[in-house]
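Anyone opening a protein record will find just a pair of labelled lines. With that in mind, the following record should read easily:
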Amino acid sequence: MIRRLLTLGRGVVTGMPEDAEQRDPLQLFGDWFADAENSGLLLPEAMTLATATDKGKPSARMVLMKDYDEDGFVFYTNYSSRKAAELEANPYAALLFHWSELQRQVRIEGPVSRVAEEESREYFESRHLGSRIGAWASRQSEVLPERVELEQRVRDYEQKFSSDVPLPSFWGGYRLKPETIEFWQGRVSRLHDRVCFERSDRGWKAFRMYP
């Protein structure tokens, strides 16, 4: 808590680095994510995932980023969930990281595709036993008449599997490959800093935007 209080308002005076537009956006994201981790924030990897149907009807929810690199940002879900259905119909999405104590946010947009099954299996096997059982037990996004039904499904799969819980065929990861990344830094009088990066065949193009 003390660390969080000490970081409250950080960057309001100094703002965005002067060389921000010359930076690689994924390296800049890495620096900002490290700042969020070191600030004492709870779940700095939490991000809003916005998807839409093929007719453009949007929906959003919080998910956890599990990996990122030059190829994109990875999260995991049930492939029968609403978010997955929308991504299969309209494979384009937006992410939002909001680190309020640092007065920073990062917006990311781009196409989404499934990660390789082996990558999903490697991550799934790293999860604790309860989460692996839960992935089997939950019919994500379906109507649940009573919670007791979910609890019974958990018991059923606990009996079926011991410590060796296989990757479900209906569960895995998605990777969003960023086409645009916008960094937002809070400033006094709401004169915030905004630096946007757009990907092209020749690399990243950067420009500042009005707040």
User: Anything to note?
Assistant: The chain has six helices and ten strands.
